[in-house]
Amino acid sequence: PPLPPATPSSSKVLKSCSHHLSTEERLKRRKTCRFIEEAGRILQLPRVATATGMVLFHRFFSKHSFDEHDRFEVAVACILLAAKTEESPKKLSHVILKCHQLKTRATDPGKGMLDPKGEEYLKLKERILLLERIILHTIGFELSIDHPYKFLVDQIKSLTGKRKVKYVDSKKDQSKMVNELLQMSMNFANDSMHSNLCLQFSAKFIAHACVFMSACYCKITLVNASPPLTWESALEVPVESLVSISEQILELISDRKGMNGNPNFADVKKNLESLKELKVSSSSSRSGGKRPAPPVGGVGGSTNTKRPNIG
């Protein structure tokens, strides 16, 4: 079949995709990204290759409807392309067989292993190879992809190295701060890949929002300084972007067991509300209104610091 014309590779085109997706589409993206993540684990792909596969998937379906293509076959093609892009290529037959086995394990447990010499396998192989070419044309052959991981490491080092942050509990061991921030930030960054946030914001903004969420969760606040520090200035991310990214990540993980009863997540939500209020009051003060003082501590008063496994 003829390939579609190549689409412009401008990042503006990709980032113009609205995050206002239907509930059904958000669910399809989330489930398929979980499939890509699990397939990456089975295929022993580096984390960056798995992340690239998910970005390619989101980019593809920003231009195509889920009714046009089988999303799992697109996911397999994205995995193959991502593995090559990140210099971790896998044999086509191995990827197809393992991904098919993973899919049928959930949808048709009684179905046996796909016969690599059978007609079903050969037809699937042809569709995957064609989809790989369609994906390349859809994204305009733009394969240079940034991920949040490297940016959040740099930001955490900057915040802690310049002593811009501290634990709310002054008795807590400050030497554990970097590792604690890094672990939670990585978890939130992994979660972000299951949505189309990568189409809406730069990887750097997403990374810095993950650091903000991690700080709130771990009960880490900004130090007192003159002039006063704000998360907006410390992270160099507009409040609107910080709030939008954080809210979308929280929505992604809202259905996880223990999420609603976890006071640490309540602290994250509380801080998001404070950020929104401060933004509104700041706009009001420029119009002659008064701006209220920010909450003391900046992260709430919960003392439960146990971290759930959300990676």
Summed up, what is this model?
The chain is mainly α and 311 residues long. The protein has helices spanning 11-15, 23-42, 47-60, 71-85, 92-107, 119-138, 148-161, 177-192, 197-200, 203-217, 231-235, 239-252, 263-286; strands at residues 165-167, 220-222.
Written description of the protein model:
The protein is mainly α. It has 13 helices and two strands. A two-stranded antiparallel sheet has the order 1-2. Helix 8 (177-192) crosses helix 10 and helix 10 crosses helix 13. The longest helix is centred in the last third of the chain and has 24 residues, at 263-286. The chain is elongated.
Topology, element by element:
Blueprint: H1 11-15, H2 23-42, H3 47-60, H4 71-85, H5 92-107, H6 119-138, H7 148-161, E1 165-167, H8 177-192, H9 197-200, H10 203-217, E2 220-222, H11 231-235, H12 239-252, H13 263-286
Helix pairs in contact: 2-3, 2-4, 2-5, 3-4, 4-5, 4-6, 5-6, 7-8, 7-10, 8-10, 10-12, 10-13, 12-13
Key features of this structure:
elongated, single chain, mainly alpha, 13 helices, 2 strands, two-stranded antiparallel sheet, disordered C terminus, 2% strand, 311 residues, disordered N terminus
What is the H/E string? HHHHHHHEHHHEHHH
Question: Can you give the helix content as a percent range?
Answer: 55-70%
Fraction in beta strands: under 5%
Structural class: mainly alpha
What is the tally of beta strands? 2
* Average pLDDT for all residues: 84
Oligomeric assembly: single chain
Q: Whole-number radius of gyration?
A: 22 Å
Shape: elongated
Distance between the termini: 40 Å
Strand order across the largest sheet: 1-2
Q: Helix count, per DSSP? A: 13
Strand count, sense and barrel status of the largest sheet are: 2 strands, antiparallel
Q: Uncertain regions: pLDDT < 50 for 5+ in a row? A: 1-18, 290-311
